[in-house]
Each structure stands twice: as C-alpha cells, then as structure tokens.
Amino acid sequence: MKVITIPCSFDNYAYLVICEETGEAVVVDPSEFYPVYLELEKRKVRLAAVYCTHHHADHIGGLEELRDEFDGLTICGSEKDAGRIPGMICLLTESSRFSAGMIRGRVISTPGHTEGSVCYIFNEHLFTGDTLFGGGCGRIFEGTPGEMYDSLNVKLKKLPMGTKIYFGHEYTLQNLKFAEFVEPDNMAIKERLEEIGRKQGISPVTSPSTLQLECATNPFLRCQEVGVSKMVAGKCGVDPFDVLSVFTALRGMKDNF
Ligand SMILES: [Zn+2]
C-alpha cells in the first residue's frame, strides 16, 4: 500500500491511499477537489471510496465535485455525522471494518473535536483528522475533555508505537512551540523542532509522524508525566495527580497560547 499526502487549502492535508496490487484507491478527507483530482489523474488509480474523519467544511470541501466526477463513489463516515456529510451512504461505527483493494481498514471512534470524529487505520497507517496533530490535538468543539482524553490516551495509545500518523493540518511547528513551553527540558521536543527548522520550505513538512514520536513530544499524550502535570498544576492550580484535570487545563492553556 502507498499513501500520498496532498496539501490542500492553506494548511489542510488530504490523503490518497492506494492498493498497488489492484490499482484501487480511497481518499481520506478531500479538503479540496482540484489537488485531489490532479493526484488521481497522475497516479492513474481507480477511486472507489472517500473516508471522512468528521463533518467540518475544510475536510469535505472537495466531496461534491468528486461525486460529480466519479459515478458510484462511496462516501463513508461516522454514523453520527449522518446528515452532516453530503451524500454519505456508508455509515460507520466503532470497529467497523472495510477494505480498499487488498488493504484492510478499521474505524476507531475518537469523539472530542466533534461528536462523530473518527480515525481510520489502514494496516499500520493511522489517519487522525483533527483529533491528533503533530505535537498537539484538535480543539474540543462538540465533545468533552474526558472524551478527548480517552480518544487520545486510551484508544490511540493502544496502537503499536511504530504506527504512522497522518493528521489533518500542518500545525506541528506551532504545536511544538507550545510543547517546548510546557516541557522546556524535553530533548525530544527540541530535536523535533530542530528537524522541522531544517525542513522549512519543503511541503509537506511533518506528515506523517509516528505514535512513538508523538508519545515522546506531544503534551496531550504526556499528561501522566511529572514534568507536564507539575507545570500545568503550577500554572492553573489543578491537582497534579488528577490526570483529566491536567489534560483539561493543558487544552485551555493551548487555546490561549
Ligand atoms: Zn475539524
């Protein structure tokens, strides 16, 4: 299987997942039509389905034109987004399984950013939309901090550490500046920032990352670490041993960073 990262709009990513054995492809989060269409033409693959991580307009902006262009295209997303994603006929629930050519995929329900947010895992490749970013996580718009905490720290952390993470926006540099503010002594964060500094100008910059790298550098996966909990407790006056309070306060700090 092959994954092509397609920069869209200002800082969005759409992804093309290709089964090289059959030439079948699916698109995850078609933010815009034209960049996705160009990539499909260039690769000469057959588009079978679109998988949406959530209903926000900047993730489904190219959907209607793709439907017009490709007859019989199957639009998939969370059943909780029924009526919010145009033309969605394939309603997925937690652990729903699907395939793209010879590639097997599975849904992980990850509410928090929105009620119906899901991640998709194809083999060892995880597509996280606005749930998990490089060095950060999405804002909590429809869910609760508890849901977002569980999505990130219980569900996604169960995956193998080598899992590749494909996120919905290029926010990594800003996120890591915040991570460094939270953990000024974390060398892995410094190294990641230096690496991004060396890559500036090359697009895409930081997608994909790995679960291992996120666990080492992403403060929203590190609330259990003493360095993070003490810092947040000191700034926000929460109980450093109450991990959910630390997570909630950390998200609030980032919203105002
Ligand atoms: Zn969103």
Describe this structure in words.
The protein is of the alpha/beta class and 257 residues long. It has a domain at 2-171: Ribonuclease Z/Hydroxyacylglutathione hydrolase-like (Metallo-beta-lactamase, Chain A, 4-Layer Sandwich), CATH 3.60.15. It is 34% helix and 25% strand. It has 9 helices and 14 strands. Strands 1-2-3-4-5-6 form a 6-stranded mixed sheet, covered by helices on one side. The chain has a 6-stranded mixed sheet with strand order 7-8-9-10-13-14. Helix 5 packs antiparallel against helix 6 and helix 8 (226-236) crosses helix 9 (243-255). The longest helix has 13 residues, at 187-199. The radius of gyration is 18 Å and the shape is globular. The model has no long low-confidence stretch (mean pLDDT 95). The protein binds zinc ion (ZN). The site of zinc ion has 4 residues, from loops.
Name the bound molecules.
zinc ion
The name of the CATH architecture of the domain at 2-171 is 4-Layer Sandwich
Number of E strands: 14
Largest sheet: 6 strands, mixed
On the 0-100 scale, what is the average pLDDT?
95
**Order of secondary-structure elements:** EEEHEHHEEEEEEEEHEHHEHHH
The shape is: globular
Span between N and C termini? 39 Å
CATH topology of the domain at 2-171: the name is Metallo-beta-lactamase, Chain A
**Total DSSP helices:** 9
Provide the CATH superfamily of the domain at 2-171. Answer: Ribonuclease Z/Hydroxyacylglutathione hydrolase-like
Classify the secondary structure makeup into a structural class: alpha/beta
Strand order of the largest sheet: 1-2-3-4-5-6
Strand content: 25-35%
Give the class-level CATH name of the domain at 2-171: Alpha Beta
Rg for CA atoms: 18 Å
DSSP helix fraction: 25-40%
**Contiguous uncertain segments of 5+ residues:** none
